[in-house]
């Protein structure tokens, strides 16, 4: 009898401990699965399994890595969170302006519009002379010229309201109509107040940026402009202006140069840096968007999502294309706006 009692007691203790362990596991596992917890251990496991290095943090507020062929998202972080777009706002401005006038429209760069450029802005050295509209688009995309953005807004505002008398009024009218256009096109989380993006109140999401990039990539002229390290614009009077791209991935002299990068755009404001990169290999296009990297600040990887299905797809693509993706802080150089060395070949 005593032996049976001892067995029951042991079984009861065992059952109690089992229930306690299960309870702790239920509470502990979800916590351990959070990206910011046990990062070093997880990175070592991932490095062993996938034969590559994984950093212990991702120093940016938002990220998306997507296959343009089927819109498959491999990696994402806070892609729905509204954040300051900085110069990436120019993408929305160009997309809208391209619906209002032909690329070969002749635009007179007015002194009043050029003078709206704020101190500390990146500029394309726009002169008081005639430009083709596509010249000004290139000036906004390649050197990220804020002066060109104001000239475009002034010109398009005049098309929308010919009776508008001042540059400020025409720019205001353009921005009001731009925001209406954004809502109509489904960019529901985007609101802009300045055509150059030099604005701390403007907001957009990474997903909205993805959609406007998709739309712009349908235009061959856009692909041609953003893919060039230096761009030579031929103006209506036959003169030329040459601009250097702010995207260091396109610069053969840069440590970030990658021959498979096809553009697209950088953007910075205050201490925040943004980058959109289009990468092409084996007839497939991958879009990498990294936003609001803060130089000198070590951020956690909270919110970084790498689903099981997408991780497998990314690993399969990585193996077939001979490439790998490393999420890590970059140099933070002002015009590189790089918070990731997003693409790195073996």
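Q: What amino acid sequence fits the structure above?
A:
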């Amino acid at each position: 009898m005593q032996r049976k009692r001892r067995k029951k007691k042991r079984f009861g203790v065992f059952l109690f401990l089992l229930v306690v362990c299960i309870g702790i596991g239920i509470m502990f596992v979800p916590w351990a699965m959070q990206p910011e917890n046990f990062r070093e251990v997880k990175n070592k496991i991932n490095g062993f399994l996938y034969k590559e290095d994984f950093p212990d943090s991702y120093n940016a507020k938002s990220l998306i890595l997507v296959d343009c062929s089927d819109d498959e998202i491999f990696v994402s972080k806070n892609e729905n969170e509204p954040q300051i777009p900085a110069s990436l706002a120019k993408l929305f401005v160009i997309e809208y302006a391209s619906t209002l006038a032909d690329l070969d429209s002749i635009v007179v760069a007015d002194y009043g519009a050029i003078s709206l450029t704020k101190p500390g802005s990146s500029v394309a050295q726009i002169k008081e002379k005639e430009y083709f509209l596509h010249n000004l688009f290139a000036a906004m995309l390649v050197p990220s010229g804020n002066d060109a953005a104001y000239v475009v807004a002034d010109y398009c505002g005049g098309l929308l309201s010919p009776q508008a008398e001042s540059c400020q009024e025409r720019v205001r009218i353009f921005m009001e109509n731009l925001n209406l256009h954004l809502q109509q096109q489904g960019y529901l989380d985007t609101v802009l107040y300045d055509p150059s993006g030099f604005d701390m109140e403007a907001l957009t999401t990474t997903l909205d940026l993805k959609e406007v990039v998709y739309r712009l990539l349908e235009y061959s002229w856009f692909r041609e402009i953003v893919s060039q390290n230096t761009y030579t614009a031929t103006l209506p009077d036959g003169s030329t202006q040459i601009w250097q791209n702010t995207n260091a991935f396109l610069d053969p002299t840069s440590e970030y140069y990658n021959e498979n990068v096809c553009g697209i755009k950088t953007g910075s404001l205050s201490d925040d840096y943004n980058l959109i990169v289009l990468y092409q290999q084996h007839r497939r296009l991958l879009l990498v968007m990294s936003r609001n990297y803060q130089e000198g600040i070590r951020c956690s990887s909270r919110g970084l999502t790498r689903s099981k299905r997408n991780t497998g797809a990314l690993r399969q693509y990585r193996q077939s294309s001979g490439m790998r993706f490393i999420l890590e802080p970059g140099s933070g150089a002002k015009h590189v706006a790089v918070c990731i060395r997003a693409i790195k070949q073996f």
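Q: And what stands out in the fold?
A: The longest strand covers residues 284-294.
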